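Human
Can I borrow your eye for a moment on a structure tokenisation matter? Give me a protein, with the fold worked out from its sequence. Write it directly below this note and I will take it from there.

Assistant
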Amino acid sequence: MHTQSARGNERWEVVKTKLRAELGDDVFSNWFGRVLLEEQSDDMVRLSVPTRFLKNWIQLHYKDRIVNLWKNEGESIDRVELTVRGAIRPRRAPSLPAPGNLNASNSNYQTRALSPTRRIDTAPSRNGTPELPGTMGDVQMQFLQGAALKPQLIFDNFVDGISNGLAFTAVRQMSGTDAKNLDLLYIHSGVGIGKSHLLQAAAAAVRAQGQKALYVTAEYFMYHLVPALRTRSFTAVKQTLDSVDLLLIDDIQLLHGKQLQHEFCQTLRMLLDSPKRVIVASDRPPQALDTLDEPIRRRLADGLVTAIQQPDYTLRRNILANRVALAKRDYPTFDVPHAVLDHIARIVTSSGRDLEGAINRLIAHNQLTHQPVTLELADKTLHDLVRTSEVRAVRIEDIQQVVCKHFSVTKADLLSSCRAHTIVRPRQIAMYLSKMMTPRSLPEIGRRFGNRDHTTVLHAVRKIEKMVKADGSLAGEIDLLKRLAQS
């Protein structure tokens, strides 16, 4: 047996790269972001994880896949062992305030609120399912806290305009003391346009009124809520949900997993039915949440559904002015001339997040060099933000439409089980382009192509990659399809 070696580390990096390609960045980060290679022998690999919950989850869902990936690298590995790093008995949770005090006024406890990156360690119960440490009361209180809020994400710092006005008004209404006319709101938009800001602002506003708000991210849902609801504290958690005045679920599109789809949907159904008011955010409309079952999609669509559009020039300019005003509180000498703000609003068009990043870069440069902010400095500092904003986000649906038109096939053909060459080749090209041009994971692409397995998508991607290298005419055809999908 030999312990961790340079060769072992190289093999592990290759295995992780393949796992990331198959699962997508979000799922890979959730489950494998903190997995370390500890030891490799001739037939065994030992990996370590920070919590028993992660150990149980990976053993149940990914162990065989990891073994196969190691074998694909020419290793004779036939088993993977998982250990918990620093496996010590969890300390008893500190005493918590009474449920009635779990609001924004209790600032000392709020600073200890569980964040998505701070995992709750779990231990196997008698029947093999994860069980949270501590008492039933501990689980109930930890559950009620939800994911941590960022103090700067409040309504006073949100800039509204034509593109986000309806969503802003609806969220303000639902977080007010009189929200009788609206009990379910669904917001969808691209990345960095304000969904999370609105949800966290609503949670902060409700808590400031002395009511209970539960803000839940997809990661928090997977790491905390599902395990909590499997334990014998289910009744206590259900009672906690019934006491919540406003439930906020962020990035619901990230809740997926074929084996646990039914469990996710059952838990979501209970979450949606328990509180008085619910706000859900996603990057797509309810009908496009193909990882959730049809009753859940209909339930979400029954509420008010509103989209946040890309910010127009006026809103971008107002966001920049607002961020500069906030920055001057900490950096009184920092200033951006109106002409520079106008220029940035014209060239950085992708998202509010990029606009905020632009101001942060200018602050850093100004404070480090003490040089004034000029048009030349803005162009030099923000050039990469301008380039990324020039490319329109491409959806799998766009790719399918372009491929169908180019090859004279129907979308039903792409999604069918037909093995005719005239159908298989366009299908494989569409899968290849979906992987190259969108952030979607292999499993999700497979679902969009008739619920195919991720290995089918991976085979198509590798095959088209190989053909493009050998066939110049096909490479030109692929480039044409890329341009058409982006137009």
Notes: The chain has four domains: 2-84, 155-307, 313-389, 396-486.
